């Protein structure tokens, strides 16, 4: 799994590409861990547009990230879920754990989620 990121204000958009399964989840966790520890990161948006599948191991990584971000009162959301990943989110009820948006732009522009970024 390849993971890239870009920053908008105090929000980091993390874009993994590949399957978030046993093999790919380690790379995702390695990319997210430094971010959830940085005080200046006020929010994370996970751009899953290039993630066709997520396993329970991948969901575990997201749960850990959510726990760390919420402990700091920072926001976390996922955007661009592909059909299979969206179905897994729904079945596992992860759509209740993380805020889900159709696209990254929707997450960044939602004032209830990432206020102060309008016009991005």
Summary of the model, kept short:
This protein is of the alpha/beta class and 120 residues long. It has helices spanning 22-37, 56-71, 83-92, 104-109; strands at 2-8, 11-17, 43-47, 75-79, 99-101. α1 packs parallel to α2.
Instruction: Give the count of helical stretches.
Output: 4
Strand content: 15-25%
Shape: globular
| Uncertain residue segments | 116-120
How are the SSEs placed, and which strands pair?
Layout: E1 2-8, E2 11-17, H1 22-37, E3 43-47, H2 56-71, E4 75-79, H3 83-92, E5 99-101, H4 104-109
Parallel strand pairs: 2-3, 3-4, 4-5
Antiparallel strand pairs: 1-2
Sum up the structure in keywords.
single chain; 120 residues; five-stranded mixed β-sheet; 5 strands
Please explain how this structure is put together.
The chain has 120 residues and is an alpha/beta fold. Helices cover 40% and strands 22% of the residues. The chain is built from four helices and five strands, in the order E-E-H-E-H-E-H-E-H. The chain has helices spanning 22-37, 56-71, 83-92, 104-109, and strands at 2-8, 11-17, 43-47, 75-79, 99-101. It has a five-stranded mixed sheet. Helix 1 (22-37) packs parallel to helix 2. The protein is globular and about 30 Å long. Mean pLDDT is 91; it is low at 116-120.
